[in-house]
């Protein structure tokens, strides 16, 4: 997904700020955060993600395309399906744990795992 760049402002990009911004852009959407958290439980096909999260396939595909622009998510082919998994699960975990501490009044609340209640039943 394209990131808006300030024309002529090379100083901003000198330290990789554009790439950092692209990473945070990927994290700047509740649905993408939900998908990332869901992938913690293991790799998924797009169809599985749509079923487990109750989202339209076009929605899931668009968000995965955005996440694939970073190293947050990796994809491999299996037959005609693409299988998605987390690229760097430990780093993501660490990043999100720190991020939660920056949300006013929410330091101890963490509901990510609830999103996957269906799958723990044996999917
Ligand atoms: Zn699932």
Describe the structure.
It is a single chain. By secondary structure, the protein is mainly alpha-helical. The protein has a single domain (19-121), classed as Arc Repressor Mutant, subunit A. Helices cover 48% and strands 11% of the residues. It is built from 6 helices and 3 strands. It has helices at residues 10-14, 17-27, 30-39, 46-53, 57-68, 89-101, and strands spanning 44-45, 73-78, 81-86. Helix 4 (46-53) crosses helix 5. The longest helix has 13 residues, at 89-101. It is globular. The two termini are 32 Å apart. The mean pLDDT is 84. The site of zinc ion has 7 residues, from helix 4. Residues 38, 41, 44, 48, 52, 116, 119 line the site of zinc ion. Residues 12-106 form the HTH arsR-type domain. This is Metalloregulator ArsR/SmtB family transcription factor. Pfam families: HTH_5.
> Approximately how much helix is present in the residues?
40-55%
CATH topology: Arc Repressor Mutant, subunit A
Q: Could you give the distance between the termini?
A: 32 Å
Task: Describe the largest sheet.
Answer: 3 strands, antiparallel
C-alpha-based Rg, rounded: 16 Å
* Ligands, ions, cofactors: zinc ion
Q: What share of the residues does DSSP label as strand, in percent?
A: 5-15%
Mass-distribution shape: globular
Q: What are the segments in which pLDDT stays under 50 over at least 5 consecutive residues?
A: none
Structural domains: how many: 1
- Overall average residue pLDDT: 84
Number of strands: 3
What is the H/E order? HHHEHHEEH
């Amino acid at each position: 997904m394209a990131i808006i760049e300030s024309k002529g402002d090379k100083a901003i990009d000198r330290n990789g700020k554009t790439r950092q911004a692209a990473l945070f852009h990927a994290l700047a959407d509740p649905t993408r955060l939900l998908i990332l958290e869901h992938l913690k439980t293991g790799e998924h096909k797009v169809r599985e993600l749509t079923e487990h999260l109750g989202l339209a396939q076009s929605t899931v595909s668009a968000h995965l395309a955005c996440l694939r622009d970073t190293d947050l998510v990796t994809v491999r082919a299996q037959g005609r399906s693409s299988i998605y998994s987390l690229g760097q699960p430990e780093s993501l975990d660490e990043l999100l744990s720190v991020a939660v501490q920056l949300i006013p009044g929410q330091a101890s609340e963490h509901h990510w795992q609830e999103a996957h209640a269906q799958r723990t039943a044996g999917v």
